[in-house]
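Write out C-alpha cells for Reverse transcriptase zinc-binding domain-containing protein.
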Amino acid sequence: MNCLNSYGDASGQKINLVKSSIIFGAKVSADAKRAVKETLGIDKEGGDGTYLGLPECFSGSKRQLLSFLRRKLQGRLNGWFAKSLSQGGKEILIKSICLALPIYAMSCFRLPKDTCARLRSALTEFWWSNGNNRKKIAWVAWQKLCKSKDQGGLGFKDLEKFNQALLAKQAARVLNNPDSLMAQVLKHRYFKNSSFLDSGVGSRPSFAWRSIIHGRELLQQGLLKKIGSGSDTVVWWDRWILDSIPRVPDYRQGSVVDLTLRVEDLLIPGTGVWNQELVFRTFTRKDAEIIMKIKPEISHTNSVVWGLSRNGSYTSKSGYALLEIIEEINTSQVEIIPPVEKKLWSTLWKTKTTPKLRHFLWRILSGALAVKERLRSRGIQLNITCSSCNNGVEDIGHVLFHCPFAQEVWALSSIPMPPSGAWSRSIFLNLHHLINCGKRKSQAPETGQVFPWILWHIWKARNAFCFEHTRLYPAVILDKALVEAEVWRELQVPTLQRTSQVVVAQAIRNWKKPPTDWVKCNFASSWVNSTSVCSGAWIVRDGYGKAIFHSRRSFPCLPNPLEADLCSLLWTLEDMANMRVDKVIFESSSPYLREAFRLNSSPGTNPMVSRITQLFHGFSELCTELVFDESNKVASFIANSVTRDQRLQSYIGSGGPSWLQTLISQKSGFDSS
C-alpha cells in the first residue's frame, strides 16, 4: 500500500478503496482474508465479475465460464434485423460481426471443443434458416463453407483453426519481444532455464499458458531459418527451405548423409555463393533448385523468421492459411479442384448482379436447392418426378434447364444456346456457357448478363407451382427477369460514372519536376515468376525535367516481387552513392516497399532492408515517395524491356534509342507544379 500511496502522491491518481475488490485463492483461510482486508482497507471480494468482457477468474469448468460466448452470439443472430436478411446480407453479418464477437476471447484462451461446436452450430443454423425460427436442411457442410470462394466455399472461418492462429500471435509476441513484461513473467514461471521454443508445459500451468503453448505449436510449424553465415544451421535438422511450408530438405537417393553438415559447408568459403555441384549432389533436384534461389547474407547471423509472409512477421491470416495447408497435406484424400472449375467459382462471384443472386448461383453449383432429388438424398421419402411436366427426375438441372417450361423461357430470351444446340446434363457446363455469353463482345451486355435473373424467376415459378398451384406463362417469367435486370443496371450507372471519373483523375497524375537544386530518381523492378530473370531500372532527372542518366540491369531468379523491389532499390542507392548524387528524391510505385520499411524493426525483416537503411543515412538530404504507376512509367518501361524483350545487357547512359527519348520527353514536362 505504501507503494500505491507513493504513486498516488506523485501522479495525483488515488485508488478508490470503496470501489476496489480483492481476489483470494481457494485455500486462503477466513482469518487471513479478514487480516488482509483490514490492512488494505478494502471490504469487497472480487473474482465473479468480468474484465474486458472475460471472467476475472478462470477456475472451474472452462465450458461453463465461456458459455457466455454462445449467448452473446445467439443474441446477435436473433435480432430483428437478422431475420430479414438475404444470403448476401447473412454472409456480411457472419464475417463482420458474428465471427468477430469471440475474437478477444480466442486471442487469450483456447476455447474448448464443445464451445467451438456450439458456436459453429449456431452459425450453421442461422445460415440455413429462413428467419422464422424454423430449422432448415444444411445442404453444404460447415467445413465446405469455410473453404475459399474459388474452391466452392464462402470463406467463413473454422473456429478451432482461427482460435489457434490467434493464439500463435501471442506466442510470436513472447518469442520476438523477450523483454516485454508478459514474456519476462512467463519466463520466470515456466522456462527459466530454457528458451521459449524449447520449454515444456511445466508444473501446474495456468489456462493462459496452456493456450499459448497451443498457439506455439502452430508457430513452430511456420518458422524458417533465415540463412546468414549458415554456421549454426544444421542441414538435416533445421527448417531452412521454404516449399509450401518451411521444412527440412530431402536427401538425394544414394547420396552420403552427414548428420553434422551445416549450411556454411554448402557455400564457397568466404563468399555468399552456393557450391552448385555439391548442392545438386546432396539434395533432390527440386530442393536443390529451391536452395539455389536463397540469397545468403554472410555478414549477418542466422535468424528465425515466419516463413509464410513477405516480411517475416507472423500474421493470424498466414497462420490460418498454414493450418489449411497442413490439413491438406495430412489428409489422405485431398479434394483437387480442376483449374477450369476453380476459375468458374471465381468468375461466379464477379458476375454483375445482386449479392442475393450471386449466392443463388452458388447454391445452384453447390447442389443446395430443395428439389425433390436432393430431398430424397436426405432421407425424405417422396415421388421425385417433376410436378410441372410429369416427365423426368426433378433435379436442379431439370428444373432450370431441361423442363419444357424452362426450355420455353430460354427459347424466348436472346441468350444463345450452347454450341451443341441443347443444354448439357452438367450444371457446371451450362453455367460456364451462360457466364461466357456475358463476356462476349458480340453479345450486348444487357442480354448476356441477364441470366441470373432468368434462373431466379424460373426457380420462383417452380416454387409457385409446387406450393401455390399457380402456373405462370414463360413470357411473363422472362419479362419479370428483364425488368428487374434493367432496374438494377440503371441503379449502377451513377456508380460506374463516378468510378470512371476517379480513374481519369488518377491517370493524369504524371511525373512532377523536383525543386531546382534537387534531382529526382525514379526506380522500378519487373518480376514475372520465381523461375524467370527479373530486372531493375532507374532514371535521374533534374529540376528542368531533363534526363541526366538512366540505367537498367537484370537480376537472377528471385522468389517474389518484394525481393525484386528491394534488389532494385539497393542497386539504385549504390549507384547514386557511387555517382555522388546528393539532395535526391527517390520515387517508386511499388506498394511492397512501404510495408517492408514499416516493419523495419521486426526480427523477420529482410537483411537487405538493413543495408538499404545504412545507405539512406549516407545522403545529406533525401526524400522517398510512393507515387502512381503513371508517374513512374519511364523507369517501369525500361525495367520491363528485360523481362518482356529479353534485353539482358546492363547499361548506364544518358542517351538511348528514339522511342526512349520520346517517352522521357513526354513524361518529363507535363506537370511542373
